[in-house]
Amino acid sequence: MPSATFVPVIDLSERDSEPGRTTVAELIGRACESSGFFIVVGHGVSPELIARMYATTSSFFALSDAEKDRVASRPGVSGFRRAGGTTAQSLDQESPPDLCEAFGVHVTGERDERDRERLGDYWAPWKLANAWPERPTGFATTWHEYMSVMSELAGDLMRLFARALDLDEAFFDDFFDDHVSALIANYYYPQHRAPLPGQLRRGAHTDFGALTVLYQEDDLGGLQVQLGDTTWRDVPALPGSFVVNIGDLMALWSGGRWVSTMHRVVNPERGNTSSRISIPFFYQPNHDAPATEDVTSGEWIATKMMKLFAT
What we know:
The chain is 28% helix and 20% strand. By secondary structure, the protein is an alpha+beta fold. The protein has one domain (9-309): Sandwich (Jelly Rolls), CATH 2.60.120.330.
């Protein structure tokens, strides 16, 4: 199986034995110290669920703008965001809007409003209600199932992270027993006209939370990781695999031992009018889990997100 030294391929099927977990944790630790990215195979996620998730999500983005707008993000609600409604998370505030549409929800978005208001006394996207489309049939059911499976996979990755950091495997368990994770679908639509200068499908950014689990559509590509200050390298899309990367919070928890790396999604070559969908699962801890001695994870992440949504 092809691999790249900066994004190693790690077989999670070995995690079922004690020696295997030690080996997998060591490989993860080395990856998180270098690029903060790795690819996992042998993860146990059903290929049928992955295929259904992508088919269902593709059908949603194929709907008319008018129908998608019925579940548009608005005050108090998380859902569909039109092109131009998402902006690169880079420090460069002059970056033009990303060339994609998006649909996103949080695991906490199914709770009643009073319960969601308890998730921190500040604005945060995990306090929004989820907006679910009526079409395609089974959309919400499939997304709920996918979120549940991603939560299980991410939870075990966190236990392996703890082992890699020479901690008890259960160290982070209490940080995630009421997690506020997000599932977002990015639709990179066909580009029929040239982008603006500096405009990408997704601008350069780091992720904010603990870790991200992403299934890439095979062969379409576009995801790149920054090495050093200027070098960008493609992340291969291996059939049946997930790309995992750590976020800023995990780098903070590691005491700076691990790195949260800038990454981006580049445009296809001119004349290539293919589309692409990526569906990252952002594993974010309980809103009141500690980030530092004085700041909760919710406050820490929300501050970063407020800057993003203000652009």
